[in-house]
Amino acid sequence: MNNQLSFWQLNKAVILFAVVALTMPLWFPLINGYSGLDTKIMIFCIFLVGFDILLGFTGYLSFGHAAFFGIAAYSTGLMLKNFSDNIVPAIIVAVAVATLAAIVIGLLTLKRTGIYFSILTLAFAEMFHSMAMAMLQTWTGGENGLTGMPTPMLFDLKMQGNNVFYFTAIMAILLFYVAKRIERSPVGLMMKAIKCNQTRLEYTGINARKYKLLAFVISAMYAAVAGALMVVYEPFVGHEFLGWHQSGEVVIMSVIGGVGTLVGPMLGAGFMLYFENVLSVDLGEQWLLVLGLIFMFVVIFMPGGFMEALERIKRRFFTTVDGE
Amino acid sequence: MPILDIHQVSLSFGGLKALQNVNLKVEQGSTHALIGPNGAGKSTLLNVLTGMLKPDDGSVMFDGKPLLDVNSFDINQLGIAKVFQTPAVFPEMTVLQNVTIPVFAARDGSFRMNMLEGYAKQRPLIEFAEEQICEIGLEKHMYTLAGSLSRGDKRRLEMAICLANKPRLLLLDEPTAGMARHETEKTIELLQGMKDGITKVIVEHDMNVVFSLAEKISVLAQGQIIAEGSPDEIKGHPKVIEAYLGEAQV
Known about the structure:
heterodimer, A: mainly alpha, two-stranded antiparallel ribbon, 15 helices, 2 strands, 1% strand, B: alpha/beta, Rossmann fold, six-stranded mixed beta sheet, four-stranded antiparallel beta sheet, 10 strands, 24% strand
């Protein structure tokens, strides 16, 4: 809360993230990461940073954020297929559609708190899932998924290989910066106060419901950007984009990384995707079991996730007697 | 003209008549105590004033504006703040952040989408919050998490939160409940030392607190106002003695 914080202190996390992200194609292959997975990690960083604005700031656990991810993915796919192969209008339309859905779902679900809110969001997401599978099959391709999109273009630039990676990485850095700005703003302060003591906040003259809705919609917009970029990355939309499995994975990534820290959930996303796609090959069929054990270990011994582990290491090795 | 005018307010919970035709006028700038045996309806009345409960009947006017059917946060924005029985603060935030919230609530109203403004950079507002914290004597704890303060200090912090958006009416629900003697004394001092102009309505069981603060006392029993007057008048009032002793005999 100090005014004298320098540019470096305020933006340390964003700068470090930018360096790590932009150099990823150089170091990622050294740890057996294949090209393409780095793009997916960047996409999920966007999803997770947004999700943390809802879960980490306000404490509302949504089990249905795959809805916005999926809705945006389908919208992008349909736009690319039927309107233009330029990704800019596609992404704008996708985010707009998902935002509208988020406003409606948010208004309905935020009337409840705790587990009821989680169940309601899950129910809405499942509704969209079954709609994509049946009612809207002619548009979504149902079980087979939406295919047949042209190669996505950023105006005259073909979105393939490294182009996609750098595009998503820059989006991730920008959106992480925006999330950091929100955290430092009065809006971020009010959102965090909702998690602390909602009654006190209301009795302090703040309309908590509007701030909750704002957090919900912002996090849905992040999910939508991620969903849209998924289609740019790989021109295919499967119905599992909307599924509860997808929603649950985001929650697990957040918890493993450290809820409420913005950086933590991104670490969680990177770790999970790396684990699923690279380490699982070495571990064989037991990889899910190992992942489950890691999750349990984190929840029981480090409820603050990776960020808590880093904090402990920092304290142990970098703290002098006077606490500096 | 009274700043707060409660007129014929009734409220039942099922068959229980929690409030029956309650009339109460609170004068601008005064300290008005509400006393009465347990279950008399004192806290219920406060909850009506903050918009938490909706009465079945009657009206409440604050400074000429109706308070019924108004949201809690709008009531606060009108100038009514409440100090809870158990100190209500934001435990995972620093003391300074706790007081920064009402300061921004006073500037921005109940909702504003200023997402890209750094709140710590608003020096005049932060300095005002710091002053408020110094005034209640918590300057050493500026960056302490509110959850780790002692109960007495949490109470002080809560008062600072309430006062930071400059209310005109402060509602206090048993502000000294569960406090040690010296903490109670400190709280009385804090309330006495509060700048003039803030009207206070205080619900309290501790008669020592009531008689050292209140200018006027209303006695509630079984949802009805049974007596009203200055502390001296209330002390010897036969109905008041009956209400309290009657309860003791049960």
